Every structure is written in C-alpha cells, then in structure tokens.
Amino acid sequence: MSEQDLVLVLNCGSSSVKAAVMDVAEKEVLMSCLAEKVGNTDAFITFKINGEKHKHALTGSHDHVAAVMALLEQLKDLGLYDRVKAIGHRVVHGGERFTQSTVITPEVMRDIEACIVLAPLHNPAHILGIQAAQQAFPDLPQVAVFDTAFHQTMPPHAYHYAIPSTLYTRYGVRRYGAHGTSYRYVAQETAAFLKRDINEMSMVIAHLGNGASITAVKNGRSQDTSMGLTPLEGLVMGTRCGDIDPSIFSFLAANAKMSIEQITEMLNKESGLLGLSNLSNDCRMLEEAAANGHKGAELALDVFAYRLAKYVGGMMVACGSLDALVFTGGIGENSTMMREKVVNYLNVFGLILDHDANMEACFGTPGVISTADSKASVMVIPTNEELMIAQDTARLTGMHL
Ligand code: ADP
Questions:
Q1: Is residue 45 within 8 Å of 53, Cβ to Cβ?
Q2: Range from 50-59, 296-305, 329-338 carrying the lowest mean pLDDT
Q3: Measured between alpha carbons, how far is 9 from 23 in angstroms, rounded to an integer?
Q4: Residue 230 to residues 4, 29, 262, 299, Cα–Cα distance (Å)
Q5: What is the maximum alpha-carbon separation in the chain?
Q6: Which residues are catalytic?
Q7: At what angle do helices 180-194 and 385-396 cross, to 10 degrees?
Q8: How far apart are CA 30 and CA 89, in angstroms?
C-alpha cells in the first residue's frame, strides 16, 4: 500500500454517520463505515474493511461524537490515523451564500446554521457532524462541500418561481436544486470520456437514484435543474411525487381532511414509484414485477420514464444545444430498460439508442449507448460523490498528492 495522505469524507444525517477514508491520488476507498440509529441507546456502527463487514455497538454517548470517536479508534487500529490529513463534509444546503466548496471557519459554521431554515432535516445534522469531527480531530482542516453550490450559476429566469417576488426577497423562496456534487463530477467525467473540453459542451445529466433530478450543464455550469426549494420538485422519484399541481394541497385538505403535515409526508414518503405501483420504491423490483404482469409496477415505470423524457426536452432548451445526454445514479447506471424507454421518447430529437451498447454499460461500466448517427451522444457515467468531496478537500487544504 502507498503512503499517500488520506481524506476522511463524512456524510452526517440526523440518525446516521456515513464515512469513507479515501486515497485521492489512487481514487480508492480504503475503509468505509455507516453508523445507524445514532442518538439512540441501540446505535451501532458497521465498518467495511477489505470487503468485509464488522458491526459494533456504539457505546458511550451513542451520538455523533460517539460515532466519530469509534471511527477514530478504527483508523488507529488500521494504522491509517496518521495519514488522514483533512476531513470533507457533505452539506445539503448552502443557500445563496455558498457557490463552491469551502474550508470551514467559525464564520462558515454560522452561515451553514443560517441555512437551516432551507434544510431543517439536514443542516442541523451536518453541524453536529462537523462539531464531532472538530472534537475528535482538532488539528485537521475541515471542508464543507454543498449539494446546492453547483446550481448557483442558474440564471434568474431558471431559479425564480412565478409567485410574488417579495417571497424570494423576504424568505429566500426560489429554486436551489440538489445533487450538485454528483453533477460536477459526472460533467467532468463525461468531458474526459469524450476527450472534449468541458467549457465547450452542452450536457443534460439525469441523476436517477432513490432521489432523482436532471440538470442542464453548459460549458461546465448548471443552467437549470429539476429540484426546487426542496428536493420534492421535478422528476418522479422512489417515494417523492415530483411536480404536481400545488392546488392538490387545498383539495386534499378540503376533501380528504388531511393536514399540511400529512400531505407533506404523503408526497415525500408514500408517492413516486411506491405510490403509483402500490408495491415498492425500488426500480429493480418494479422491473421484475412488471415483467410478471404487475400493472401498478408497469404504470409506475411508464410515468417515471415519460416525465423524465419530457424534462430532457426542457433541459435541452436550457442548454440551447446538446452534445451529450448522460445517465447516472443507481437507476441511470443500471436500468437498461429505463434508459431504453426514455431514449425511445427522444427519437423525436434525433437521439437513437444502440441496443447492444446499452446492455453493456451497466454495473459501473461507463459508455456511449447511442448509435453513430444519433444527433447527440447518449451516455452512462457512474457517479462518485465521495471522490468529488475528497478531491475538493485535498485541493482546498493544499494536500500534497
Ligand atoms: P440513492 O439515491 O439512495 O443513493 P441509488 O443511486 O443507489 O440510490 O439508486 C437506487 C435505485 O437504483 C433503486 O431504485 C434501485 O432499484 C435502482 N437499481 C439498482 N440496480 C439496478 C438494476 N440492476 N436495475 C434496475 N434498477 C436498479
């Protein structure tokens, strides 16, 4: 094993801590872990080392500090502790304040706190995680990498809602987007794969995981994206509805006697593929069920594909031209069926799928999946948000690679 400096990447949720120790130069994860039920007495942490999983109870305070301390002990046991030179944190919301990744200072912490109103479930957990890491690794520089930052290049006509503008100026109601770290990584990789200059390319990238969104990237900059003030807007997702008529709120309040909280919960957790199919939020499972004649699964996949294809058309408008349509995320990287359905809708724009190439680009293999006469390249590029966070962290802390 080389003796390269390492970056610790942390992604802290309210009851979870996800971590990866990365060798940035080799683009390699040396160890990863996931702490679950953080904050509860039955909290536990699972380490993945050399492909093997080891599960331990989280003792002591059972909180984010306990999780990060358990990680620190594991790093010492593995002889990696002294090689970790910086920590990179995933932060969901950076509002309009953060347009790029940044070294964490007391002022940056205050600004992340100020964004809590925009991400009330996520930013408080990130703050706990950053504080825990500062306590456990007081001498290491820490970097925040924001999901929203990449989309701060969107022009006003793309990020404004057509509602009274005072709601924007007073409360910050606008479109912020998400998955920015993934888009930045995939845009770079797409250009590199095609051996082209990212600054002279128009791409539409669809990040399709449990959460799903699509972004127009022109000359390396986000022009528009499908998620909005929150991740609920846009595409059909695993359990989120994506775009709906906002009047559904008052309609359901009046007719189904549902509260705002109940409707919000239903739209976020019981809708999307799950709600349409009445079966599952999992695309792979729905594909199997549809193949066996399950009508709900078929409908769910059809609505997902149709909405996505319509959005590709919209994002082409945002780019003004198209060099590459790129699929990424668990569904984008693996579902040959979903890619086929979507690209078939896009024949109208001259995009044509190469059936064999589509079947080959799966399970982490990138590739061009369109025919030579397709008007633009259709591609599969696996995402790697952790590597992007680690690369930013190494760059911003002047790490010697
Ligand atoms: P997350 O947003 O949680 O990171 P992922 O990017 O891992 O999610 O994507 C999860 C989705 O990818 C699930 O809907 C899963 O069914 C889908 N998926 C993974 N592998 C396949 C496959 N071979 N075929 C179809 N869908 C797949």
A1: no
A2: 50-59
A3: 11
A4: 39, 31, 17, 26
A5: 65
A6: 147
A7: 90
A8: 17
Mean pLDDT across 254-264? 98
C-beta of residue 269 within 8 angstroms of C-beta of residue 278: no
6: β partners: 84
Residues that constitute the known binding site: 11, 18, 90, 207-211, 282-284, 330-334, 385
Q: What is the pLDDT of residues 99-109, one digit of tens each?
A: 999 999 999 99
Residue 367 C-alpha to ligand 1 middle, in angstroms? 18
Q: Rounded to an integer, what distance in angstroms lies between the CA atom of residue 151 and that of residue 130?
A: 23
- Gap between the terminal Cα atoms of the chain: 15
- Tell me the pLDDT tens digit for each residue of 112-123: 999 999 999 899
Report the distance separating Cα 377 and Cα 196, nearest Å: 12
Other CB atoms within 10 Å distance of the CB of residue 210: 16
Rounded to the nearest whole angstrom, what is the distance from the C-alpha of residue 152 to the centroid of ligand 1? 27
**Smallest CA separation from ligand 1 atom 13, residue:** 282
Annotated binding site for substrate: 90
Domains in the chain, start-ordered, CATH in brackets? 6-146 (3.30.420.40), 196-385 (3.30.420.40)
Ligand 1 touching residue 209 (CB < 6 A): yes
Q: How far is CA 371 from CA 1, 15, 33, 74, 239, in A?
A: 42, 46, 41, 49, 34
Amino acid identity of 155?
P
* 336 CA → ligand 1 middle, Å: 12
pLDDT-derived band at 2 (thresholds 50, 70, 90) equals low
Output the pLDDT for position 165.
98
β partners of residue 47: 33, 54
